[in-house]
Write a structure and sequence with these properties.
single chain, 407 residues, alpha+beta, Immunoglobulin-like, 2 domains, 9-stranded antiparallel beta sheet, 5-stranded mixed beta sheet, 8 helices, 18 strands, 36% strand, globular
Length: 407
Amino acid sequence: MNQFRFWIREMKKDAKIPFETEKAIEDTLKALPRKAAADSGENIYRMNMRRRRYRVIAAACAVVLLAGSTAYASRMDFSLLTNFKNDSREVKERAQKLMETEVKQTKTNTGEERGDASQVSFWVTSKVKEAVCDKNTVLVELEVKPKDGEHYLLKPLDADLANDLRLPEQFDTELSVDDYAKSLGKTALHVSVGMDRAKDGLSEEKRMIDNLSLDYQMQPDGTVLFKLQFDNDDKTETLKYQYSICVTRPDDKKSQLRDYFDFEIGDPSEQNVVHYVPVKKDQLVEGTHLIVEDVELEESDLSIAARVKYRYTGDTMSEEEWWECVDGDVMFFCFDEDGNPLKDDGVYSGGEGGELLKGKWGEKNSVYRDTIGLAKAEIKDTLVLRARGVFLGKKWFGEVTLRRAGK
């Protein structure tokens, strides 16, 4: 973590970083150790999510910094449409058309509704407020309200300070959420959310969602909006998911209550896949032992996903050694043939071998795939990839030029 903070400080010398972005990075880094151990009911916090999952979050922050903009919504508007505020008018209009605001949900942990403090429904209500997706990405916003807003203030997981709630007003930088609640004559009520695929006969592993990111904002009336973004790996016309709500009883900190809700959203978007191959076959990325094999650009209605497949050619090492070496620390960025960075969509899924396709982590000739989220734009015949370190310094490594297959 100290290495990443050093990198951020160094980058600030070259680029102006918005306060909200810098604070969000610090909040993320501060939360990572707890996320690995917390029993919050969210699959993003599960013990079997490897260390690479947390590095992916840091990589996403890096993309935001390189773009010189913030991926976080303003304090006044937290709707899903704010995710497209920097996109073209065409993309914004398409997002508006694809948006679903009447999403039906069904509680799946059925049982007697006793209405007492042993059930989530005693403390909060929740619903899918809106959802939008294309063949690459799914965005879901959950609305969670306290049942007794007069006496309780919702405290999302990892919201330590009052400013973490991102209300319109600014608070003293040291004011905690608990103390803020007390100043209102309320008690802080811990709440968290999670997302999986709906059961539908799937194993626990198959239900887990890849590259899930989460953000939240409290509204002036005490409602908390949770924004979840993740990969659309199913690419079907109907997407089936299950979200969870976890509440920690204020009178018993060891008692965590959970509810589960199934919901469906439609995906009428289309997809076009463009294949790129390196101009120089088997070209090593300078400074690494990596060879880029190919790139697929998956263009959909709202975004483009660049799938980078690459191979490790060095000596076999242990998985722990892999995460601490240059080859395991690299992530890729996309540029055009004139050296201009391609605009990102605020999401970087991958880094450090985001997905293992063949072999074992750190094994000679093992194959990986990273996914880079790009904003919707004209697809050119030439694509340039540049590799850059994440935790082992901000050093840029070599680049690889690729051409559109058949061109």
